[in-house]
Amino acid sequence: MRKTLSAPVPTHAPAAPQQFHRIKSIAVVGGFLDGLYLDLADGLNCIIGARGTGKTTILELVRYALDSLPNAESDAAGRKRVETLVEKNLEGGRIELTVETKDGLTYILSRAAGEEPLVLTEDRQPTDINLAAGGLFKADIYSQNEVESIADRTVSQLDLIDNFEAERIADIQARIQQAEANLAHNAAAIIPLQDKLATLADELNQLGSVEAKLKTFAAAGGADAQAINQAHAHKALRDRERRAMETTDQFLGEYLEQFDGLANAVAGQVGTLFTRDMLAGPNGPALTATRQALIGCGQEVDALIQQARERIEAERAKLADAGEALSLAHAQQEMAFRAIIEKHQAAQGQAAERAKLERLRN
Question: Taking the domain 22-151, which CATH number applies?
Answer without folding.
Answer: 3.40.50.300
